[in-house]
């Protein structure tokens, strides 16, 4: 049945209207003197406003997290897990509301937003299960006598800063392990997409989370609110997902206090297609690796490195698939590509394309803005992109696929590693030895072999080089929120 404009606007009003829009501090919804407008990137219209916290209110959130820390750490692991499990179920029960909310504030097509609900909720379930599996070690010292006891304890209050591109999953990927470990949290979502985190806080409360264990601070003054929190000796951990430049600033601020940090930063993923690749799979993988989240993912394939013998065939097939995508508001029936998150992001994408074209790239499809309402950019494939083009070194963060060719495995690998980033790489080959050789040679935290998406709540997500420090998800994810204490016991 066709969805009318009226249906949609009534649905939008209902879903947005149900989200609490004040600050969440110590279990209370707290108003702020100023408000931030939240925009729908498909129309440029304001969806609603949320509280704009002052630095004092940020500190009040830290006070609440500190006050709740001791009792939360002492809560039985099973109880912490049960709360996370109930939150997982509640997110699923409200899957459609969460999905539409993300589509509205961030722009992604509804089917992808539904996918993020499943992915994001899974971190709550995964860490609900990990909460009861925190354990240490007991050993006899090699020289005998002394016994070595190793225990794991929650690090303490955590400050979590999240980006706008995966509003639910970036929150649950931090909250799940932090809460499972027994840490309390102040979370600051991106100012472009605060609504999903606020809705998640309401879900956690309904799931039985005690007051003060999670506190949400929405603000347009991220630096001014964050600095005093990071400088406060009661804070024990900073976990950040966002761009590398902001990550560098936060590491510098944390260095003063030697604050424990996890950093999930930018990426510049190479997508390698070797001469022995199954090209059908490679094109399917390319569509996912490039177009998931409209290209606005840290894991997005940023450079397509294709063996010269298959480059033309790959480029033509890839361009045909990209040209056939339906670009429309994410909540419109059949939308496959939504708008970019804001005008600034779209201008940056257009600038990078113009630069690549200036340096000799050929536009196979796309290469332009779409429409005069919202921030739409056409799915784009560029062939013959120079390694000197800006997009070879910078995150594109949009639906643009640059193709560069290589002549040998060694050259492909060297090009893949020619970046300061090291988050993820993709490689397509049917040769097992090559897949292993290349996986070992890639300077990244993650590798996808013959697949265009690697993110999985049960696997450790994270990067090397300028892509960050630490891992989220998997068995490793909870370790980031635990201290190891060693106790030597003389017999
Ligand atoms: P961003 O760095 O601009 O902002 C991220 C968060 O930091 C936001 O909440 C923002 O308000 C806040 N922030 C900005 N300046 C700050 C400051 N001085 N002090 C404290 N907080 C500050 O990034 P973005 O544009 O929101 O997100 C896109 C970036 O995130 C891309 O670079 C992308 O690759 C990266 N990202 C990485 C991962 C990963 O897991 N590695 C996942 C998603 C996104």
The set of bound ligands, ions and cofactors reads: nicotinamide-adenine-dinucleotide
CATH class of the largest domain: Alpha Beta
Percent in strands: 15-25%
The CATH architecture term of the largest domain is 3-Layer(aba) Sandwich
- What is the number of E strands? 24
Descriptive terms for the model:
491 residues, alpha/beta, Aldehyde Dehydrogenase, Chain A, domain 1, Aldehyde Dehydrogenase, Chain A, domain 2, 2 domains, seven-stranded mixed β-sheet, six-stranded mixed β-sheet, 24 strands, binds nicotinamide-adenine-dinucleotide
Explain the overall architecture.
This protein has helices spanning 5-17, 55-74, 77-93, 95-106, 110-130, 169-181, 195-206, 222-231, 244-255, 279-291, 311-323, 343-358, 390-393, 409-416, 432-441, 476-479; strands spanning 23-25, 28-30, 34-40, 45-52, 137-140, 147-154, 158-161, 185-188, 214-216, 237-241, 260-264, 269-273, 301-307, 362-365, 369-370, 376-377, 380-383, 400-406, 421-422, 424-428, 446-449, 464-465, 468-469, 482-489. It has 491 residues and is α/β, with parallel strands linked by helices. The chain folds into two domains: 8-265 and 468-487, Aldehyde Dehydrogenase, Chain A, domain 1 (3-Layer(aba) Sandwich), CATH 3.40.605.10; 269-455, Aldehyde Dehydrogenase, Chain A, domain 2. Bound molecules: nicotinamide-adenine-dinucleotide. Nicotinamide-adenine-dinucleotide (NAD) binds next to helix 8 and helix 9. Belongs to the aldehyde dehydrogenase family. One of its GO terms (molecular function) is succinate-semialdehyde dehydrogenase (NAD+) activity.
